[in-house]
């Protein structure tokens, strides 16, 4: 099973699923197999689902356990501080995007932590 955040909501895809093309939002992509679960963070992209498989196209993907939670939390705090100052509209859009990425990465880390707890 693959679980990911689509533009229209969360998607859970299993083998034999009807064909589907979906736009993905930045966030965790969970690959669940009998042998375990892997969690990745993607910056968004596209998913093509066919009954016999799924193709996920993204600019970048990082294993959730490779993300630095402390660094992400610091970036989130800095972005929130800059958003309060709201000097320039261009800066606002850039900082808002940075904040959204940080929040999406934190969701990927939380999904990984939840998976680790389930194994214990």
Describe this structure in words.
With 120 residues, the protein is an alpha+beta fold. It folds into two domains: 2-64, ATP Synthase, domain 1 (Sandwich); 65-119. The protein is 40% helix and 38% strand. The chain contains two helices and seven strands; from the N terminus they run βββββββαα. Strands 1, 2, 3, 4, 5, 6 and 7 form a seven-stranded antiparallel sheet that branches. A hairpin with a 2-residue loop joins strand 1 and strand 2 (9-13). The longest helix has 31 residues, at 89-119.
Radius of gyration: 16 Å
What CATH architecture label of the largest domain applies? Sandwich
Name of the level-1 CATH class of the largest domain = Mainly Beta
> Count of helical segments?
2
Beta-strand proportion: 35-45%
CATH topology of the largest domain: ATP Synthase, domain 1
For the record, what is the CATH homologous superfamily label of the largest domain? Answer: F0F1 ATP synthase delta/epsilon subunit, N-terminal
Number of beta-strand segments = 7
End-to-end CA span: 21 Å
The overall pLDDT, averaged over residues, is: 81
**Structural class category:** alpha+beta
Largest sheet descriptor: 7 strands, antiparallel
List the secondary-structure elements in sequence, H or E: EEEEEEEHH
């Amino acid at each position: 099973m693959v679980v990911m955040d689509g533009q229209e909501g969360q998607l859970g895809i299993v083998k034999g699923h009807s064909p589907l093309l979906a736009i993905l939002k930045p966030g965790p992509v969970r690959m669940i197999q009998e042998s375990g679960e892997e969690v990745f963070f993607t910056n968004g992209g596209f998913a093509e689902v066919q009954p016999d498989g799924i193709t996920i196209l993204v600019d970048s993907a990082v294993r959730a356990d490779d993300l630095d939670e402390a660094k992400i939390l610091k970036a989130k705090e800095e972005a929130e501080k800059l958003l309060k100052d709201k000097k320039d509209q261009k800066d606002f859009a850039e900082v808002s995007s940075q904040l959204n990425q940080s929040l999406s990465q934190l969701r990927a880390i939380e999904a990984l932590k939840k998976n680790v707890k389930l194994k214990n």
